[in-house]
Amino acid sequence: xxxxxxxxxxxxxxxxxxxxxxxxxxxxxxxxxxxxxxxxxxxxxxxxxxxxxxxxxxxxxxxxxxxxxxxxxxxxxxxxxxxxxxxxxxxxxxxxxxxxxxxxxxxxxxxxxxxxxxxxxxxxxxxxxxxxxxxxxxxxxxxxxxxxxxxxxxxxxxxxxxxxxxxxxxxxxxxxxxxxxxxxxxxxxxxxxxxxxxxxxxxxxxxxxxxxxxxxxxxxxxxx
Amino acid sequence: xxxxxxxxxxxxxxxxxxxxxxxxxxxxxxxxxxxxxxxxxxxxxxxxxxxxxxxxxxxxxxxxxxxxxxxxxxxxxxxxxxxxxxxxxxxxxxxxxxxxxxxxxxxxxxxxxxxxxxxxxxxxxxxxxxxxxxxxxxxxxxxxxxxxxxxxxxxxxxxxxxxxxxxxxxxxxxxxxxxxxxxxxxxxxxxxxxxxxxxxxxxxxxxxxxxxxxxxxxxxxxxxxxxxxxxxxxxxxxxxxxxxxxxxxxxxxxxxxxxxxxxxxxxxxxxxxxxxxxxxxxxxx
Lengths: 224, 285
Known about the structure:
The complex is a heterodimer.
Chain A: H1 2-34, H2 40-52, H3 55-66, H4 71-80, H5 88-112, H6 116-124, H7 129-140, H8 142-157, H9 161-167, H10 177-186, H11 190-215
Helix pairs in contact in A: 1-5, 1-8, 2-5, 3-9, 5-8, 5-9, 8-11, 10-11
Chain B: E1 2-12, E2 15-25, E3 30-34, H1 41-49, E4 56-61, E5 64-68, E6 73-74, E7 82-85, H2 97-103, H3 112-120, H4 136-148, E8 154-158, H5 166-182, E9 186-190, H6 194-200, E10 203-208, E11 211-217, E12 226-238, E13 241-248, E14 251-258, E15 270-275, E16 280-284
Parallel strand pairs in B: 3-9, 3-10, 7-8, 8-9
Antiparallel strand pairs in B: 1-2, 1-4, 4-5, 5-6, 10-11, 12-13, 12-15, 13-14, 15-16
Helix pairs in contact in B: 2-4, 3-4, 4-5
């Protein structure tokens, strides 16, 4: 039963994280695509940090941020009653930050492929930035959005360092499958470790295969 | 009346150079902007549309100031009442023909104009089709219809017919002329095709290296005025007519003339075109 709990928690974390990421990453990628502000490279570097930063470093900073002895953690606890350290909500926030570049980058690349003339045409028609995003960029860049969210989903499932640092390994609350593998190996329960490992390998392979299938797909073309 | 004056550094054919153009187009005229590639024609259209801001500029259209860099005035593209036909059509690929037109509607605009445009441009049978399935001429008709949905006072067209075959060009020239007079538009169009200029233009504005080098009414052309000089790339004879493709200023211009007048011209000859736009004289240099 614990096994299913762990797997359920892992996929729940990945699902919630991906949903939040979609809301955050799509407008962010659009802004990065169309903006010509000088500060853009700084923001791009910040977003991409999790790609190169050791997960433990990110986990450490987040833990410091969540700590009730620090200002943000105390503020959240006092005013919103939230305790982020070693909680599911804390894991979600960490995963969102950690997986952000995995969705922003493909979506930004997809949006960059949308011809500038389409945006110019919509601007002449008096459409706002949000309308242009919703009616022009999202439908045109839909494949990159699907690809980006699948990569973010798969990446969240495979998180280890950040989850361990921020969430610990509380069964049913913060113990995800990747941590369960580690703990099972430590306890020399190779059968259990194999069980988790097989499911993680299978799901990761499946998601990546769908991503590569989508790359050359005609499925979503508008040629009716 | 349109008064245009602008200065901007641009990455042009000759490297980074300055566009410094000035011209006036009377209301109701159809002006054709021509000149070699990379000389700033599209940039002029984009400045008129408000999609590009010059370092210095003053644009007044029908007594409304759209741009005055001295006073910090720069009217947003949406408030300029323009229709813009892009060279690559810029149709939204995920919307069908009707949806493309409906998307162009203003917030409180009556939808009837969409049906009217579909009828005028003969798009009835195509209204459920997506742009990927349309031919070049059909896409161009949709682009024209979409540009007119907002009832613009100024229509800007960036080489709207360049990718089409002769037959389709003639058909669309007719549509352009029709809508121009029907809606009493003032239009500015970029073109390289002499026949197109002859068929459509009230006034021609020639740009060279970022500035207006000549402006004249097509009816006022002097008999011996040299229009272009260039190199003959191909000669195609069909019956009594010869179709010559002449490369001038890096653009290829198609000219048709009675075969008898061009019988001594072969591929590779340097020629100059003079006389009227409707029937230019072609001479070997």
